[in-house]
């Protein structure tokens, strides 16, 4: 992912970035570093509009373990996690069709960019607000925060995202991503490798999209 940006790679190494992979029968709070995680409060900015709207009938009734188990099969941050069934492309499993670890690790990359290239991050923030104004990613997770905008854009860059469909529009490949959101695409061209392909990714241009 970072063969074009040694400075970002070195910043991650210096900060102690690590990756952990959950077994198929494990969940987020089985990871020792994440076992004490609490569920988010109703006003947590990470929640989507639907999650905030339905909080009393959903998250409020869950334990912390139940919340994180249903929340995701991987988390971003300095210690990034993913799930073995997703990396192996096991049919019928959650998130089949797109690489979740690419999404989660890109959060770590974006945090490193805040240190090594804050001007680029500022341009991503502008691109995010422009995209929201234009409704480019309406009703998608990509619209939620600038961090998710970057992470989902990363998956489109590497041809490992599930398709975004809105009306007659479909975005699934890096070429379609470039045509739909050229502002973010051109910024990412300053960070990521230009072949748009992570060799070990089983979902690269996968038919499940």
UniProtKB/TrEMBL annotation:
Where are the stretches annotated Disordered?
30-52
Originating organism: Rhizobium freirei PRF 81
Q: Where is the composition biased (Basic and acidic residues)?
A: 32-52
Annotated protein name in UniProt: Glycoside hydrolase
